[in-house]
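Sample entry (105 residues):
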Amino acid sequence: LGVDAMFLLIHTFSTQTQLDICYQDQVGEVLRKAGVSVVTTALCNVAAFLAAALIPIPALRAFCFQAAILTGMNLFSMLLLFPAMIALDVRRVFAGKLDILFCLK
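Predicted structure, serialized as tokens:
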């Protein structure tokens, strides 16, 4: 759960870089194009786990509640933390720095 959101955001970002958009606006455009899909998928997963929490088995009910909370936190990280990491990578690329040793040029 959540890896599909990462793949979708990265794929949208990779197709975005071929267009003529300044690097300051690229992450915003990625979220504008792919953000609705990420939110829809995550909310459907949360709803499915909450619906499954109606099962009368206590251990399964606890698992479903925990999975729903975890999926909600994953949505939070996919919309706030992961785009920030993409923005830092865009800044690194346009500064001409290396991938692993980003403190060197």
